[in-house]
Every structure is written in structure tokens, then in C-alpha cells.
Amino acid sequence: MARAFAKISFTANVQAVQTEMGSRAAYRTAELGDIETVALSDFEQVFIAERDSFYQATVSQTGWPYVQHRGGPAGFLKVLDQQTIAYADFSGNRQYLSVGNLRGDDRVSLLLMDYPGRQRLKIWGRAHVVDERSEPELLAKLESPDSRAPVERGIVIRVEAFDWNCPKYITPRYSQREVETLIEQTRSQPITKDKPSSRALGTGLLPLTISGIRQLTPRIRGYELRHADDEPLPIYQAGAHLRVPIILPDGTITSRAYSLTDAPGERDCYCVAVLRVDDGEGGSSALHDGWQMGTRLNADAPENYFPLHDDERPALLIAGGIGITPIKAMAEALAARGAAFQLHYTGRTPQEMAFVEDLQRQFPDHCRFYFSQAQNPTRLDVPALLANAAADSVIYVCGPSRLIDSVRQTARQLGIADDRVQFESFS
């Protein structure tokens, strides 16, 4: 949670209610220190560019808030730079409530929704109006070739704070285009006459049911598994994995182990995230094609060969690509017990990396992200990272073999003991 958001939102009255409800201590730390420089990262910029609508609130002269829905072709809300967004204001019902409100109070609040992905981004800023007389060149940049609606003006917003919300209580909704895409994907899935339907798959002693599916990135899906008989699930520790049965297209039943992505907590649900690799051994693609809501599995209880230390030493967490799955659980477990940690997460682009928005929202002061193929690429400097690590820190790395090898070799060169470097590879 960013300090800029906390400074704007946590007024005296809000703080009083937080105190009454017992959440004040958890949120107070977000207000400490100077306000950071607010800048939209690559992830926020991509998210904004993909929206075809948002909700905007302004304040009237009488103090009443006014919330308006704004819609247009995807990308009509444009990112001008890391601190500025803008959109073309199309001709509507000619009430001009939002525009009129901005003449007296330039503050706005935006809510951007991704219903299929169960994500929402809140933005606070100060807005001003531009038109053909004041800034014709800027107004021309805001026009969209995909829209025939007449543009009356442009609204330019200087971002002062933003924050991500958790997916809780966001009901997934899908546009007609998204529904058609899902139907086409279902129709194109291979059908095997021997594929089991209602019977449970596997011979493990833990009966599970797929109770939720979430598309985290174009190639990564998150799966929620619950006990088939609504019983409490076996406990586990951060770093643990769940071995599950998978049926291949030729009818062969195999198994794969996937890291549990959430910190140990309530015993009613396991969560895993699976990257689809079409040129691999076939397990991940078979899982993506075969696992549906209600699929029954007989799995093994969780095992842990990548355990998190339980003493007071700080942790340095390093993840590459899908290697974020056990690292995310470790970060949540460390945060829950108040332990010191840093998380460094590298991948190709924000849209290909799972949980970026969740980690940004949960641990803004603990995380750093690296995008090797983004518009403005950033790369993880392993030697510099390890050289500046605390002398007693425990280092955890998970991801591609080249990342793990780099961390281990660098640690040896710096004289870091092998037992302080823990790793897990998916290869």
C-alpha cells in the first residue's frame, strides 16, 4: 500500500473507525515516512491501456459526490507519462455534471475494473479540461480511430495516488467478445473417448474438487481446490507443493507437483498456479485442457522440500517467471509474522507475470520487479543484490535454471555459505 494513498484516504474519521474495528495498527505503517514519488509502472500502464470503461467521481459545489461511467474503445484512457493520464470526452446527454464540477474542484477519483481477472485499480488525481482552442495538438492525441463519437473536450488527470484492491467480492463478468473467445477455446479442446468425466482422477488419499479458476496471465491459470467432502484440509508450511493427477491426451494418467501459492492460513482451500507450456512434456497443457469447475481429484497431501526458516533472520526472496508461486507464499508468511524480507521478481513483461498486482498491493515497500522485454526494460543485477544482502539473511530462489545457477555461483564467489542459499527448480 503506497503512502500517497494512505495520506489522502486515511483521514481522522477513517482512522477513528479503524481504531474501533481493530485494524488501525495494520494500516498505520503505510502512513509513516515521506510520500513517495507517484509513478505508474509498466504494469499499471498496460492495465490502463486495456480498459474500455471506468468509473469517475467528482465533487459538486454542494459537496455531493457524483459518479459517472465513462466508456469507449479499449485504450481510450491514455497514459501520457508515468504521472499523467487523459481521455477524450465524447458528446453525451449534455448535462455536463462532471465538467461543471471540475470548474469548482479539480479532484477526481477513478475506479478501473477487470471483471474476468477480478482486479481493480483506484486512481486519485487532479483534472483539467483541454479543448481545440487551448491545446489542439493534445486533444488530437486523445482521439481514437475506432470511435465515431464526436469529441467535445479532453480531460487530463495528474495522478497523485493509486492503489490496487484485492479480488475479494469481485464477481467475474465477461463481455460478448470474451464469452465468444472462451466458447471457441472450449470447442477446440481435444476430446478423448476414454477421458473420465464424473469419476475422480488419481489414487491419492486426499479427495479434492476444483472450486475456482482464474486466468492470471494469458498462459497462467490459478486453480482453487477444496476438500470434496467439505472437511478441513491438511496443514502445510510456505514452500510446500501439492502433487496432483493429470490425464494426458492418450489416456495415460501421470502426476505433477505444483507449489501452493498462498501462505498457510484457513484450512478450507489450496491454491496453485500453472503455466501452460505447449512444447513441454504435455502435463501443463493437459491440465489446462482437462481441469474444469467441479473436476474431482484424489491427490497426495502437501509435501515440502523448500521450507522457510522459522527464526528471526531476514529473508531475500528471488523469483523468476512461474517461480513466483512458492516465493509468494513465503512473502505472505514472513509478513504475517513481522519478519524482515525483500522480494525481487523478474520476468519478461508485466502481463506475463502472475501476482504482480497482488504483490504490489500487499508489499509495496518490500518488492521490486524487473521486466526484461518491457518498453523500458529493467534487469535483475544478481551480484549487486547479493553483495548488499544482510550478513545473516537466508536467500531463497526459484525459477529458471540459469537464474538459480547465477544466484548460487555468485553466492559462492561472495563467500556466502551454501546453507544460506535455498533453491527450487521446476526443470
Describe what this molecule looks like in 3D:
Residues 203-309 form the FAD-binding FR-type domain. Keywords: 2Fe-2S, Flavoprotein, Iron, Iron-sulfur, Metal-binding. It comes from Methylomonas rosea. It holds the Pfam family NAD_binding_1. InterPro entries: FAD-bd_FR_type (IPR017927), FNR_nucleotide-bd (IPR039261), MRET (IPR050415), OxRdtase_FAD/NAD-bd (IPR001433), Pyridox_Oxase_N (IPR011576), Riboflavin_synthase-like_b-brl (IPR017938), Split_barrel_FMN-bd (IPR012349). By secondary structure, this protein is α+β, with helices and mostly antiparallel strands. The protein has four domains: 1-34, no CATH class; 37-165, Pnp Oxidase, Chain A, CATH 2.30.110; 201-299, Translation factors (Elongation Factor Tu (Ef-tu), domain 3, Beta Barrel), CATH 2.40.30.10; 315-425, 3-Layer(aba) Sandwich (Rossmann fold), CATH 3.40.50.80. The chain has helices at residues 3-9, 12-21, 24-28, 42-49, 97-104, 136-142, 176-188, 283-290, 324-336, 356-362, 382-387, 401-413; strands at residues 53-59, 65-71, 77-81, 84-90, 107-114, 119-130, 151-165, 206-215, 220-227, 241-247, 253-259, 270-275, 296-299, 315-320, 341-347, 367-371, 394-399, 421-425. Strands 2-1-5-6-7-4-3 form a seven-stranded antiparallel β-sheet. A hairpin with a 5-residue loop joins strand 1 (53-59) and strand 2. The protein is globular. It starts with a helix and ends with a strand. Mean pLDDT is 88; it is low at 191-197.
